[in-house]
Write a structure and sequence with these properties.
The chain is mainly α. The protein is built from ten helices and no strands.
């Protein structure tokens, strides 16, 4: 009988050792917690020093090209020429796709940035109002922008393919409304 007790005691000790020193054991967990604490301290030190967070260089190019696209649609000949030299396309949905394809970022991030930058809250409000059947004047009043600004925004949304000719959101427009 005492042999069974010893055997059970050895099994319990072996299981405890496995829990403590195994792959997902307590010792490994403590090491990971220490690493995590060290990384948090380094991040806090970087933020407190005012050091800029690392940003992907492609992000700057994406934002610059989106700004140029928005300016070109608004009538800037310099922006239009710059984009044409770079992409060999006039402003429109095709150019927007080329700009997004060129950026080396996550596709969801690129689309979200483009939607925020090109559509914005005013554009989403106008699309929602027009989708509900409001006139352009009523939709502009509901969003709180002058009629001239609303018409310019609607023109931009149509050129970029967010709205069709009948002022209804396209698939791209619905995606922007969901974000």
């Amino acid at each position: 009988m005492w042999l069974v007790d010893i055997f059970l005691m050895l099994v319990i000790i072996a299981l405890l050792a496995l829990m403590l020193f195994g792959r997902g054991g307590i010792v490994r967990q403590r090491q990971l917690e220490q690493e995590l604490g060290e990384l948090r301290r380094r991040l806090q030190a970087q933020q407190s020093e005012g050091a800029p967070m690392p940003v992907h260089p492609s992000l700057f190019e994406l934002v610059r090209d989106l700004e140029s696209l928005r300016s070109a649609i608004a009538g800037s000949k310099i922006s239009e020429r710059t984009l044409y030299k770079k992409y060999r396309m006039p402003p429109g949905p095709g150019l927007l796709r080329k700009i997004l394809n060129r950026a080396k970022l996550d596709p969801a991030v690129k689309e979200r940035i483009a939607d925020e930058f090109l559509v914005g809250e005013v554009g989403r409000g106008l699309m929602r109002g027009l989708e509900r059947g409001l006139t352009i004047e009523r939709a502009a009043a509901e969003v709180g922008v002058p009629l001239a600004v609303a018409k310019g925004q609607i023109r931009r949304l149509q050129i970029l393919g967010y709205m069709d000719g009948s002022l209804k959101p396209t698939e791209l427009g619905w995606r922007a409304l969901r974000s």
